[in-house]
Amino acid sequence: MDAQSRGRADNVDPADQWVLNPNTGEYELRLTPSAPQSTVPGPRRSAPRGAGGGARSRTAKPQAPGREVPPQRRRRATPEEPLPGRRGRRPVQKKSKAKKALMWTGGSMALVLVAVGTAGYLYLRHLEGNVSTTDIGSAGKSGFSKDEAFNILIIGTDKRTGKGNEGYGDSGSVGHADTNILLHVSKDRTNATALSIPRDLIVDVPDCQTKQSDGSEKVIAGSEDVRFNTSLGQDGRDPGCTMRTVKAVTGIEPDHFMMVDFNAVKTLTTAVDGVPVCLAHAVSDKESHLKLPAGPSKVEGEQALAFVRTRHSWGNAGDLDRIKVQQQFMASLMRKMSSSDTLTSPTKLYKLAEAATKALTVDTGIGKVSTLKDIALEMKKVPTKNISFMTVPVRDNPADGVVHKTVIVDPNAAPEVFDAIKNDVSFTAVKAKEKKEKAAVAARLKGSKSAASEVRVRILNGGAAPGSAQETLAWLQNDEGVSKSENAGNADAALSKTTLEYAPDQAAQARKLAAIMGLSGSALKPGKSVTNSQGLPAMTLTLGKDFQEAGEPLNASSKAPPVARSTADKVNCAS
Q1: Which residue among 94, 98, 445, 490 has the highest number of C-beta atoms inside a 10 angstrom radius?
Q2: Which distant-in-sequence residues (6+ apart) come within 8 Å of 566 by Cβ?
Q3: Average pLDDT over residues 302-330
């Protein structure tokens, strides 16, 4: 009898058989509640499996990690094994990937996966079969790297499949891209940006190559001046077409996609026993059937779906104001999933893992649960205060005439936002002390520490805050390996911009230091070298008024533009 069958036989929820070991911080399977449990950290027991079989119900003999012992065989005792004379027990395989829950989730019309990465423990092997995949060919990457920044396009489709969803909106919808969020996670994991793309944004959808069910390929012709939501479903377009459209509009290339439907909102909110929301005024919406009083409430299931589908009760009753409410809902779901109430409940985690994976369709590059778990754990590293929600800057579409139904990209404000995301720039104030690695700097840094150690430079303060030269010196020497650097005090005059002066034979050193500092080409000043304290020729780095702090890149794209946004740690009331 496997673990799940035993749980049913004893009238015990399988999730309740997982118990938190305070010494290891891991959940362990306890199949025999009456048996004494060791408090000494050691090998974990195997996870329950689904229909394919699973762990036996008898207790496993502890053994060295990664090794198995044939049943009933006597072995010489080691410090990691029980004392001699105890009856041998059947082997239990090392619990490998089935210990942490993937809960990257999302929702149609409102709910996306930003929240889920912060909430993972406990996933079961059979979750692998829950996730659906789509081959998008060259539209995305073939795998996931934990060492790079990444972009995931979250798509909430308006397809009305699933129990109880047939009555919503257009029952004949082919599944358009109704809610779209481009999630960018920085290389150093100090920040993330969730950029909402309005469904009514007028765009040109490019030609896209799709994989058919029979294995053949088909090119779907593009369309000009159409709504963004038609990039999915229309004329047989797949999520790869939506990814190509995002790249065409923003210049940002999505690496992967995750797609969910209406059921995700209902099942995930139910799994966490409801999501807290706040309303600035009472709502009784005839379209969505949402009825809530002003102030705080808790929604789940059908009511949660009604909340995220509501449009006419917010702001100017348009899609842009609904997007703001959806972002508030996602932030609240994220906080609920990362709360101790959720993370310490194996039952909730079990339900979340089931709900999330059943609601999810992803590209084949991240189609394995182990890969999705890696994404979730990388996202978990980002502090909620540094997760920014914003919308593509737009204008009313002049082609609509008097009644504005669609929008276009704001040609003045949008490019700066797109460039900031492409250059891995945070929209929140991420201080140097929070950074494990300078993502924007590391993206430009090439070569080894030994090459950096050959850079000779004297640092002057030419208008930066007091102490900046010493701070930069410490950072260059301790973090970047520029050991031949020194503090030369204050410059003779203040400069508005930071400069690096170098002699012709120091060009290679200048390029290296510019890469480390994130200096633009205009900051490099060919000139003369100076003599350092060792009597050797050195370059001169003068920190100008544009200098912020050590490690912050100084090129033109290093600072995010001002844009209306919210962060995941703040509670806002829908209005």
Answers
A1: 98
A2: 324, 327, 328, 331, 388, 389, 390, 572
A3: 89
Q: Which of 74-83, 103-112, 362-371, 482-491 has the highest mean pLDDT?
A: 482-491
Rounded CA separation 345/117 (Å): 17
> What is the average pLDDT across 209-221?
89
Q: How far apart are CA 266 and CA 202, in angstroms?
A: 30
Within 8 A by CB and 6+ apart from 79, the residues are none
Point out which residues pair with 29 in neighbouring strands: 18
Q: 3-state class of 137 per DSSP?
A: helix
What DSSP designation does 71 have?
A: T
Q: Which residues of 400-417 are buried (b: 16+ CB within 10 A; e: fewer)?
A: eeeeeebbbbeeebbebb
| pLDDT per position as a tens digit, 294-312 | 999 999 999 999 998 898 8
Query: Which pair of structure tokens corresponds to residue 522?
Result: 């205009």
Q: How far apart are CA 119 and CA 373, in angstroms?
A: 11
* Cα distances (angstroms) measured from residue 236 to each of 46, 181, 323: 43, 21, 26
> Which backbone phi and psi does 339 adopt, to 5 degrees?
-75, 155
Amino acid present at 427: F
Task: Show the tokens assigned to 78.
Answer: 């080691």
Burial class (CB in 10 A: 0-12, 13-18, 19+), 559: middle
Q: What is the pTM of this model?
A: 0.62
Instruction: Round to whole Å and give the CA distance between 514 and 511.
Output: 5
Helices (H), 486-567: 507-517
Among 78-87, 122-131, 457-466, 485-494, the range scoring the smallest mean pLDDT is 78-87
334-362: b or e for each residue (b if 16 or more CB lie within 10 Å)?
A: bbbbbeeebbebbebbbbbbbbbbbbbbb
pLDDT at residue 110 above 80? no
